[in-house]
Design brief:
The complex is a heterodimer. By secondary structure, chain A is of the alpha/beta class. Chain A has helices at residues 16-22, 24-27, 38-58, 71-85, 100-111, 129-135, 158-168, 239-277, 304-312, 323-326, 333-337, 342-345, 359-379, 388-391; strands spanning 4-5, 65-68, 91-95, 115-119, 140-144, 171-175, 194-198, 209-213, 281-283, 294-299, 316-317, 319-320, 348-352. Chain A is globular, with a radius of gyration of 22 Å. Chain B is built from eleven helices and eight strands. In chain B, a hairpin with a 2-residue loop joins β6 (223-231) and β7. In chain B, 40% of the residues are buried. The chains are: A alpha/beta, B alpha+beta. The A-B interface holds A 301-306, 309-310, 313, 322-325, 327-331, 342-343, 346, 378-383 and B 2, 9, 12-13, 15, 18, 29, 33-34, 36-40, 57-62, 64-65, 101, 136-137, 160, 164, 167-168.
C-alpha cells in the first residue's frame, strides 16, 4: 500500500541528498574531530561547514550555533543556562501551549521553587503580547515562547516580542523547532537570545538538534564533559547527523519558496476540500498567521483515534489531538488552552505537509476522508444528519 | 500506536449491529461527549424473553466501537438473567484482550448493558451510587471499588485504565489508593508522607495491631501476648501460655511481631520481651 505521509510536524523523511552527504561519515571518514591527525581533522572541517550551513538558515554566525541531541535538549539547555546565569532571578514566563519540552520543564521548575507564568491564548491560539509585557518583572530570568505551535501551526509574534525584551535586558528563548525551515527566520532582524531547532523536523535524521546562542548571552552548559562545542556541550559530536543537519539546512533554504507557495497551496486545497465536503468541521487556530504546512481540523461528534485508524487503513498518516491517541484521557493541552469545545476537541486531526507531498495525494485524502467521517458519524449516538440547507 | 488484537481491528472496521432497534424493550445510555466516549445500547426480546436483537451507537475510539460491537454479538440469544452475568472482562476476552489503558471501553459496555436490562424490567433509573471521587470524569467510589474488586486492580494506573478515574487533574489519586487498599484489606497509606504519629496514636495503633493481627495467630498455638509498655519506639510485651516457655519465642517475637508492627504502625519500632 502506498503511504501518504502528512504527519511532518511529528517527523520527516531524511532527504536523499542529506543521506548521501552523511554516508561517508559512518565508514570512510569516521575520525574523531578532536583528534590531532589529519584523518580526524578533516572531519572537524566538515563540522565547521555544517555549522555554517545551519547558521546561514537563521541568519546567525557559525560560532553562535551549538549542536545538541534534540530540540528537547536545546530547550532544556537554554532555559537552564538562563537560570544558572541569573541565580538571583526566580521568575520564568512561558505559555500554556508549549511543547512538553518546555511545558513540563516549566512545571518541574515550578515545583522546585521558581515562579512560572504560563500565559493563556485565545480561542484562535493567539497570544496577547501586552499580557506578556505586563507579566515581566525585575525577577524574570527568562521568557521562553515557541515560534510556531506544533499542533495548530499558529505563529507567535516573536518579531514583536524580541525587541521589547532586548530593551528590558531579559533573556528571550524561542522554541523554533516547528518554524525553522518552514518560514524565513533571521536572528539579525529578530533579536532573540536563544533559539532551539531540531533536525528531524526538517529532513535531517532524528537525534540531532541545535541551539542558537547570541554572542554575549550568558551561558552555562547543560551537558558537562569534554571541550567539544567550545566547552558548551560535552560529548563526542554526532558527526554524521551534524553533517546531515547542515545539508538539510541548506536544502530548507533552497525549498523555502516552494514551502511557502506550493506546499501552502496544497495545504489550503486540502483544508478547503475537506471543509467543503464535511459538515460540522472547523479549523483550529488562527488561519491568517500560521505555518504554511499545517492544518488542524476538528470533526464534531466523532473521535480522533477512530478517524486516524480508518485513514491508516488507506495508508494516510496523520495525527490527532484527541485523548485516546496519547494514552491520556483528556484532549491535547493546546486545544484545551484554546477552549476548543469537547464536541470537537476529541475529533481533531492534524495534517502537516512537506515539500514531498503532491497534488494527487491531496486529491486522494479529499476523496477518501469524508466517507470515513460519515461512517463514524453513523455510529455516533450524538450525530443527527444536518438538513441539506444547513450543510451548505 | 495501540496494540490492538486482530479481532478488535476487525470489529472496529466492520462493526456488527450498528443503529437502534425499533421499539426497544431495553435502552441503556452511558458516557458523554465531554468524556470522549459514549454508548447507546438498545435491545428487543422475543417471546421467550431472550434478547432477539441488539444494536449500538458509539462515539469513541476504535476499542470503544469494537467493545460495543462485541457486546451486541455476545448478548444476542441470552436471557436477561444470562446477560446480567456478562462482565467487562468477558467483553475484553471476546475481543482477544484490550490494552490496559483501554479497559474502560469494556466497562462502558457492561454499564450500558446493566442500564438496558434495568430499563427493560421497568426498574427506575438508578441514582448514581456513592460519592464522587474523580470529578474530571464523574466516577464514584462505588464504581471504582467495583472495578478494583472485579478485576483485581492493584495500582492507580490500572484504575484509570478501567474506569478513567484519576486520568484528568489527578487530585483524586490518594482517594483511589485508599479504595484499592480497602478492597485488598490493607490499611490506607497516603502516598504523600503522613505526619508523624503522636504517642497516643502510636500506642493505639500498636494495640490494634496486636489485637487484630498478632494475637489471633498466637492463639492458634495456644499462646498469647500482652502489651506491657511503650517507651519511645520500644514496645515491651509479655508472652503467655505456651509461647513463654518456647525456645522459639525469640524468633517469633523478632520476626513476626516486629515485622507486623513495622508494616502496620511504623518501621522504627523495636520489640522487647519482659518476664512474666
Amino acid at each position: 500500500m502506498k503511504v501518504i505521509y502528512v504527519d511532518n510536524n511529528a517527523t520527516t523523511q531524511v532527504a536523499p541528498e542529506v543521506l548521501a552527504e552523511m554516508l561517508p561519515y559512518f565508514h570512510d571518514l569516521y575520525g574523531n574531530p578532536s583528534s590531532m591527525h589529519t584523518f580526524g581533522g578533516q572531519v572537524a572541517a566538515k563540522l565547521g561547514e555544517a555549522r555554517e550551513q545551519v547558521a546561514r538558515l537563521i541568519g546567525a554566525s557559525a560560532d553562535e550555533i551549538l549542536f545538541t541531541s534534540s530540540g528537547t535538549e536545546s530547550d532544556n539547555t537554554a532555559i537552564k543556562a538562563a537560570l544558572e546565569s541569573h541565580p538571583e532571578k526566580k521568575h520564568i514566563i512561558t505559555t500554556r501551549v508549549e511543547h512538553p519540552a518546555v511545558k513540563n520543564l516549566g512545571e518541574d521548575l515550578g515545583k522546585k521553587g521558581y515562579r512560572v507564568t504560563f500565559l493563556p491564548v485565545d480561542r484562535y491560539g493567539r497570544l496577547n503580547v501586552n499580557r506578556l509585557f505586563d507579566s515581566l518583572s525585575d525577577d524574570t530570568a527568562i521568557v521562553s515562547i515557541m515560534w510556531a505551535n506544533n499542533e495548530t501551526g499558529v505563529l507567535f509574534p516573536i518579531e514583536e516580542i524580541a525587541p521589547v525584551l532586548k530593551a528590558r535586558g531579559i533573556v528571550f528563548h524561542t522554541d523554533a523547532v516547528q518554524a525553522v525551515g518552514k518560514i524565513p527566520i533571521d536572528v539579525k532582524q529578530t533579536p532573540v537570545d536563544m533559539l532551539s531547532l531540531s533536525g528531524h523536523k526538517l529532513h535531517a535524521p532524528k537525534g540531532i538538534g541545535a541551539l542558537y546562542v547570541r554572542k554575549g548571552t550568558k551561558f552555562s552548559p547543560f551537558v558537562i564533559g569534554g571541550h567539544q562545542e567550545r566547552g558548551r556541550r560535552g560529548g563526542t559530536e554526532n558527526v554524521a547527523s551534524i553533517v546531515g543537519l547542515g545539508k538539510a539546512s541548506e536544502l530548507a533554504a533552497a525549498h523555502m519558496e516552494d514551502e511557502n507557495t506550493r506546499v501552502s497551496r496544497l495545504r489550503d486545497k486540502l483544508e478547503e476540500g475537506i471543509l467543503d465536503r464535511v459538515p460540522n468541521a472547523m479549523v483550529n487556530g488562527d488561519t491568517n498567521y500560521r505555518l504554511p504546512n499545517t492544518t488542524s481540523i476538528s470533526f464534531e461528534y466523532v473521535e480522533g483515534e477512530a478517524i486516524l485508524l480508518m485513514m491508516n487503513e488507506l495508508g494516510i498518516c496523520a495525527s490527532s489531538g484527541s485523548a485516546c491517541t496519547s494514552g491520556s484521557l483528556e484532549p491535547s493541552h493546546v486545544l484545551r488552552a484554546m477552549g476548543v469545545p469537547f464536541t470537537s476537541a476529541h475529533g481533531s486531526i492534524r495534517f502537516s505537509l512537506s515539500v514531498y507531498n503532491t497534488e494527487e495525494e491531496m486529491d486522494f485524502i479529499i476523496e477518501r476522508l469524508p466517507p470515513i467521517i460519515e461512517r463514524l458519524r453513523e455510529l455516533s449516538p450524538f450525530w443527527t444528519k444536518p438538513k441539506v440547507a444547513a450543510a451548505q | 500506536m495501540w496494540e490492538y488484537t486482530e479481532k478488535v481491528k476487525e470489529h472496529f472496521l466492520n462493526p456488527r449491529n450498528v443503529g437502534e432497534v425499533e421499539d426497544p424493550e431495553g435502552v441503556g445510555e452511558v458516557g458523554s461527549l465531554a468524556c470522549g466516549d459514549a454508548l447507546k445500547l438498545t435491545f428487543k426480546l422475543d417471546k421467550d424473553k431472550k434478547i432477539k436483537d441488539a444494536k449500538f451507537k458509539t462515539f469513541g475510539c476504535a476499542s470503544a466501537i469494537a467493545s460495543s460491537s462485541a457486546l451486541t454479538e455476545m448478548i444476542k440469544g441470552m436471557t436477561l438473567e444470562e446477560a446480567e452475568k456478562v462482565t467487562n472482562q468477558d467483553i475484553a476476552d471476546y475481543l482477544g484482550g484490550l490494552p490496559k489503558e483501554k479497559m474502560h471501553c469494556s466497562v462502558m459496555g457492561r454499564e450500558a448493558l446493566e442500564k438496558a436490562i434495568a430499563h427493560s424490567r421497568g426498574e427506575p433509573e438508578k441514582a448514581v451510587e456513592g460519592e464522587l471521587v474523580c470529578e474530571c470524569f464523574g466516577v464514584t467510589d462505588v464504581e471504582i471499588e467495583r472495578a478494583v474488586r472485579e478485576n483485581n486492580l492493584a495500582t492507580i494506573e490500572d484504575v484509570t485504565g478501567y474506569t478513567k478515574a484519576g486520568g484528568g487533574c489527578e487530585s483524586c489519586h490518594d482517594k483511589i489508593l485508599e479504595i484499592i487498599n480497602k478492597v485488598h484489606g490493607k490499611p490506607y497509606v497516603a502516598r504523600s508522607k503522613p505526619a508523624p504519629l503522636t504517642n497516643l496514636q502510636k500506642i493505639k495503633l500498636i494495640e490494634e495491631t496486636l489485637e487484630r493481627e498478632i494475637r489471633p495467630s498466637l492463639h492458634k498455638d495456644g499462646g498469647d501476648i500482652e502489651l506491657f509498655d511503650v517507651d519511645g519506639n520500644k514496645v515491651y510485651v509479655r508472652l503467655q501460655g505456651t509461647c513463654a516457655s518456647c525456645v522459639a519465642s525469640q524468633v517469633t517475637l523478632k520476626h513476626y511481631v516486629e515485622s507486623k508492627l513495622h508494616e502496620m504502625v511504623t518501621p522504627e519500632l523495636e520489640v522487647v520481651e519482659v518476664a512474666s
